[in-house]
Write a structure and sequence with these properties.
The chain is an all-alpha fold. The chain contains 19 helices and no strands. α6 packs antiparallel against α7. The termini are close together. The relative contact order is 0.14.
């Protein structure tokens, strides 16, 4: 057991060191983009029911620091501010599927080809889905939304999905504080390493834990020997990614760990595209704001483009005779530079500070208790911990304490 925990900790540490420099840079750039690009200017360009509005929405969404949950109020505001259904759909896809932070982490943990293909696939998917929705709307086949979701003001809380630290974004002081360039720089960094990091910390922690577990637990060639690659694994990644929420950056180490265990790059890209763009909350929001038929176009477009780019990615790696890269493919992680080590430690401290700030432990405890509430069972109560301790003792006794 101790050997397993040590190996798990080392795998997580390696991921933090590998991704640290790029993730810190990505958070800084995302914060600066949030401050320097006024959202009002985005809204003004997306009202047309044509390809131009869809193209602009796709481009605007790609670098913005919004995850799948925090993009919902912004997209709703876009729609209620006059953006077409196609532009809103394109924004809902391109924004969570990629970003400056996820691109950097993809380069750090995977390889240059995947770093290039990922944003291209996100852009093409957004363009295709948005154009299909606009075509539907022009023919009058789209359905009126069933509900009008309550939203925050356009500039308020657009980057936050964790209610405790979400404030009104000091709109009154925005113009005065950001009048000078230095104030904007500081405000951008404060947002990137503050509110934005707080939004992403739960998913970073989950992503790092899961990817470390995959690295240690799965056999070296799990995909290929245990589970066939190709269409089978792509379909599996699609089924896993559609209902489950994981942000673009946090999904990257998971995909890299799966590649290290034999997953083909096309299937990994399917997970990277479907996971961030689709989850239960997003699907409900799309249905409520854009209508049921638009939701079907949204889901079908993501599935088809993800699978198509999965096939194209596998073909590209084969045609170029490239082996998909993964920073977690080697068992010995040595030779890190001072910059990488310092960045990894800094990232760890920032995540720890953010977890304390948003009270992540309470959120996790509440999420664990929620499914058991109707049964009136507390899986984290004193009785439960006594049972867990008894089980661990039984496991220890059954192995005679060897290897512990």
């Amino acid at each position: 057991m101790i050997d397993f925990l040590v190996a798990w900790s080392l795998a997580i540490s390696a991921i933090l060191v590998e991704s640290g420099p790029y993730l810190l840079l990505g958070l800084a750039l995302a914060g600066l983009i949030k401050v320097w690009i006024p959202e009002e200017s985005v809204y003004r360009h997306l009202g047309g029911n044509d390809f131009r509005s869809v193209f602009k929405a796709s481009l605007f969404g790609m670098p913005l620091p919004l995850c799948s949950c925090s993009v919902i109020p912004t997209a709703t505001a876009l729609r209620q501010s006059g953006a077409s259904k196609g532009a809103t759909t394109a924004f809902l896809i391109s924004t969570p599927e990629t970003g400056v932070d996820s691109i950097g982490v993809t380069y750090a943990l995977m390889d240059p080809l995947m770093t290039l293909l990922r944003p291209i696939a996100a852009l093409v998917t957004a363009l295709g889905a948005g154009s299909a929705v606009n075509s539907l709307a022009k023919r009058g086949w789209d359905q009126k939304p069933t509900t009008r979701l309550p939203i925050q003001p356009v500039a308020a809380c657009s980057g936050s999905c964790c209610g405790d630290h979400c404030t009104d974004n000091h709109d009154d002081d925005h113009d005065h504080e950001h009048h000078y360039g230095e104030s904007r720089w500081l405000a951008g960094l404060r947002y990137g390493f503050g509110a934005l990091l707080d939004d992403l910390t739960p998913w970073f922690v989950l992503g790092f834990l899961v990817s470390g577990l995959i690295t240690v637990w799965l056999p070296a060639d799990f995909f290929g020997e245990t589970l066939p690659t190709g269409w089978t694994s792509m379909a599996l990644m699609l089924v896993i990614g559609v209902p489950l929420y994981i942000c673009a950056t946090a999904s990257t180490p998971v995909a890299a760990a799966l590649i290290a265990k034999g997953l083909d790059p096309g299937s990994a890209l399917v997970l990277l595209l479907a996971g961030p763009a689709t989850n239960i909350a997003t699907m409900l929001a799309v249905r409520g704001v854009l209508g049921r038929r638009v939701l079907w176009v949204y889901l079908v477009a993501i599935a088809l483009f993800a699978l198509a780019f999965g096939v194209l990615t596998n073909w590209a790696y084969g045609w170029l005779d490239l082996t998909p890269g993964s920073a977690m493919a080697t068992e010995s992680h040595t030779g890190y530079s001072v910059v990488e080590i310092v960045a990894g430690v800094t990232l760890s401290l920032l995540l720890l500070t953010s977890a304390v700030r948003i009270r992540l432990d309470r959120g996790v405890a509440a999420a664990i208790r929620r499914p058991f509430a109707r049964l009136r069972v507390d899986p984290l109560g004193r009785t439960a911990w006594m049972i867990y301790g008894g089980l661990l003792l039984a496991v220890w006794l059954s192995s005679a304490g060897l290897g512990l």
